[in-house]
């Protein structure tokens, strides 16, 4: 039965002294406040709606939920409104400030300045964990494993984890959609990123997006299984509809919005289509 998260000290709590801080370029990028409205329009709105839809399929009665890497609190606010008890964890100070403003007073959800690799919670605290950002800003597989292991530690037996990743082909498709593929440097970069999965180094970048790793669906599944979770499925979030040339206007049209959502649902698990989505969402459970 859902209840308030236990206070640190009753069980093991991960010691964070050895955890490196998030990369400077990641913090600098998000300190521009790019996340404030990203999920409210265009492709971000499609991502937000579809992520909520998938989470609702697997998240049952009011639960205790950790929103790890929860940014400015869009998902935490939504979950709290639905009756869940939420603790948001975020390493970017501006995001923590924004999330606390969103939580209100008295706060509707908890907000913690901390890293996904060293969570400030006891073992087996949560019924569900959201990891909707940390995995793609941890470039090394060992660091992603640390974050997943921490998520597993704070999960109750049988708890559900929702882990997001950026698709391997997102950068290439976005460059084609925006016609930036004509630029020789952009073309070279997206080809390199598609082949390696890793964001090119800072000196090569033609856009401000920071260091990241871009997953293939089977890679994401293997990494999650590797720390002891049982993967239920890996889903394409936005579906191919994000490639609509006038997505903002289409999303505001009720009929077209319905079609975009139907297409996303029908493509989400298709082996030839799910990687067309900019974001993948893995659903997994901690074995009992």
Description:
By secondary structure, the chain is an alpha/beta fold. It has one domain: Vaccinia Virus protein VP39 (Rossmann fold, 3-Layer(aba) Sandwich). Helix 3 links the parallel strand 1 and strand 2. The protein is globular and about 50 Å long. The relative contact order is 0.15.
Oligomer: single chain
Q: Let me know the largest β-sheet.
A: 8 strands, mixed
Total individual domains: 1
CATH superfamily: Vaccinia Virus protein VP39
Count of alpha and pi helical runs: 10
Average pLDDT level: 93
Low-confidence stretches: 1-16
Q: Approximately what portion of the residues adopt beta-strand conformation? A: 15-25%
Helices and strands in order:
Layout: H1 24-30, H2 42-58, E1 64-68, H3 74-81, E2 85-90, H4 93-103, E3 110-113, E4 126-131, H5 141-154, E5 155-167, H6 170-177, H7 184-196, E6 214-215, H8 217-225, E7 229-236, H9 247-252, H10 254-267, E8 279-286
How would you summarize what this structure contains?
The protein is α/β, with parallel strands linked by helices and 288 residues long. It has ten helices and eight strands. Helix content is 37%, strand content 18%.
Looking at this protein, list some descriptive labels.
eight-stranded mixed β-sheet, alpha/beta, 10 helices, Rossmann fold
């Amino acid at each position: 039965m859902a209840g308030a998260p236990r206070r640190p000290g009753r069980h093991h709590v991960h010691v964070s002294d050895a955890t490196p801080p998030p990369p400077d370029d990641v913090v600098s990028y998000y300190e521009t406040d790019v996340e404030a409205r990203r999920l409210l329009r265009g492709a971000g709105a499609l991502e937000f709606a579809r992520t909520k839809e998938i989470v609702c399929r697997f998240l049952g009665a009011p639960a205790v939920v950790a929103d790890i890497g929860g940014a400015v609190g869009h998902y935490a606010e939504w979950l709290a409104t639905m009756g869940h008890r939420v603790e948001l964890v975020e390493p970017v100070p501006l995001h923590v400030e924004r999330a606390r403003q969103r939580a209100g007073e008295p706060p509707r959800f908890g907000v913690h300045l901390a890293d996904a690799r060293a969570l400030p919670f006891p073992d087996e605290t949560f019924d569900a964990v959201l990891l909707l950002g940390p995995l793609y800003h941890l470039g090394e597989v060992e660091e992603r494993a640390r974050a997943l292991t921490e998520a597993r530690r704070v999960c109750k037996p049988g708890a559900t984890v929702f882990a997001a990743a950026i698709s391997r082909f997102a950068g290439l498709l976005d460059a084609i959609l925006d016609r930036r593929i004509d630029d020789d440097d952009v073309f070279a970069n997206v080809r390199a990123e598609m082949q390696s999965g890793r964001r090119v180094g800072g000196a090569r970048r033609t856009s401000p997006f920071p260091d990241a790793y871009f997953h293939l669906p089977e890679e994401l599944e293997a990494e999650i299984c590797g720390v002891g979770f049982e993967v239920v499925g890996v889903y394409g979030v936005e579906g191919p509809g994000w490639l609509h040339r006038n997505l903002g206007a289409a999303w505001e049209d009720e009929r077209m919005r319905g079609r975009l959502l139907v297409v996303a649902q029908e493509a989400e698990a298709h082996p030839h289509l799910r990687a067309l989505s900019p974001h993948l969402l893995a659903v997994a459970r901690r074995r009992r």
